[in-house]
Design goal:
Elements lengths: L28 E9 L3 H17 L4 H21 L5 E8 L2 E7 L13 E2 L17 H4 L7 E4 L5 E8 L23
Antiparallel strand pairs: 1-2, 2-3, 3-6, 4-5, 5-6
């Protein structure tokens, strides 16, 4: 059975070096968490704060932290406006190669397994073409890193994003060619 826990502040993330943890860049698994909250503006802010704190501890860039905060805020507000469930759930998963964020109104026991998430088209219909059973459309396309909307056949909603960890920050243009090159010393 689940338990209800009230969080009055932002949880602290503890690190146990004695357990022999690897540093973040070498680790295959950086982070996995799920947080449920109510529908109040304070609860929605808590979801964004938890995601940002967890990814900051995992070594995310400032740009990714800002993107995470915006993604969770937008997705949570969308769910409040489009779902009547009393609780909203945030899932954050980050490994050595990808970061996945999902905000949903779906809450079911773990033994049920994940629901059948189907992409939603621009005209608000479920997109069934090319959907394979057991494949999560949020993580199936490695090139789709924007906010994606999915729905289950029974009406549950999920907004999420999945991006490569390395490409989760904007690429800086190399300006090496514009820098003056040192001159060779002449005897």
């Amino acid at each position: 059975m689940g338990r209800t826990v009230e969080v009055r502040g932002l949880p602290r993330l503890l690190e146990d070096d004695a357990a022999g943890q690897q540093s973040a860049p070498q680790s295959d698994h950086r982070l996995s968490l799920t947080v449920e909250a109510g529908r109040s503006s304070r609860d929605l802010a808590l979801l964004a704060d938890v995601a940002v704190a967890a990814l900051a501890r995992a070594g995310a860039s400032r740009w990714l932290l800002k993107r995470t905060e915006d993604t969770v805020r937008i997705a949570a507000h969308y769910l409040v406006g489009h779902s009547s469930t009393p609780r909203i759930s945030l899932t954050v998963t980050a490994d050595g190669t990808t970061v996945t964020l999902a905000v949903t109104d779906y809450s079911a026991p773990v033994w049920f397994g994940p629901p059948a998430w189907l992409p939603v088209t621009a005209d608000n219909t479920l997109h069934l073409h090319g959907v394979r059973p057991g494949v999560d459309p949020l993580t199936a396309d490695p090139h789709a890193d924007g906010l994606q909307l999915h729905r289950t056949p029974d009406g549950h909603i999920r907004l999420g994003t999945h991006a490569p960890w390395e490409q989760a920050m904007p690429r800086r243009q190399h300006r090496d060619s514009s820098l003056p090159q040192p001159r060779a010393a002449t005897p």
